[in-house]
């Protein structure tokens, strides 16, 4: 008997196919309302423009922190390093005490230690697109650290393979 393809099956298939595109993992944080910071794990982070320096990420409209992020004037994106899987899981869990043990100051996006880069952004645009909203930020400050990144592929966290010496260098683009 043939299996009937339902809408749910098709959606899962689409998610699986999209998940074949390997990404890094980041956590975005914002000050939130009434001194309650918000944060979530994302892999929709991307670079958009160098001049001005713009980055983007997409937030699901169903996220508890949706309103707080869409209305935030400032937010910070921390690119996670390998070994930060527990933090990634915690910030991907709805209702979790995400900031336990993390210093949070009023009015500023919380800083997460141990990542391989961070970008402090001011809100540039928020564009509703289907069931997500794309948030574009203008980078006002950033830093990077020579740590290996955490990788997300096919629904799981991964590590980069050690450099084999044959990875090649991408030609530099004209400035
Ligand atoms: C690796 C990974 C990447 C994710 N990327 C996104 C993303 O880009 N956008 C998004 O809205 N949710 C993403 N999520 C899901 C959110 O992290 C999760 O639903 C989070 O708890 C939502 O925040 P909330 O607690 O405010 O609802 C991702 C989860 C994981 C594990």
Topology summary:
Layout: H1 7-18, E1 23-24, E2 26-30, E3 38-42, E4 46-49, E5 54-60, H2 66-70, E6 74-79, H3 85-90, E7 117-129, E8 132-144, E9 151-153, E10 156-158
Antiparallel strand pairs: 1-9, 2-3, 2-6, 4-5, 5-8, 6-7, 7-8, 9-10
Bound molecules: flavin mononucleotide.
Flavin mononucleotide (FMN) binds next to β3 and β5.
Structural description of this entry:
With 175 residues, this protein is mainly β. The chain has one domain: Roll (Pnp Oxidase, Chain A). 13% of the residues lie in helices and 35% in strands. The chain contains three helices and ten strands; from the N terminus they run αβββββαβαββββ. It has helices at residues 7-18, 66-70, 85-90; strands at residues 23-24, 26-30, 38-42, 46-49, 54-60, 74-79, 117-129, 132-144, 151-153, 156-158. Strands 3-2-6-7-8-5-4 form a seven-stranded antiparallel sheet. Strands 1-9-10 form a three-stranded antiparallel sheet, with no helix packed on it. The longest helix has 12 residues, at 7-18. The model has no long low-confidence stretch (mean pLDDT 92). It binds flavin mononucleotide. Flavin mononucleotide is lined by residues 25, 40-44, 57-60, 63-65, 92-94, 152.
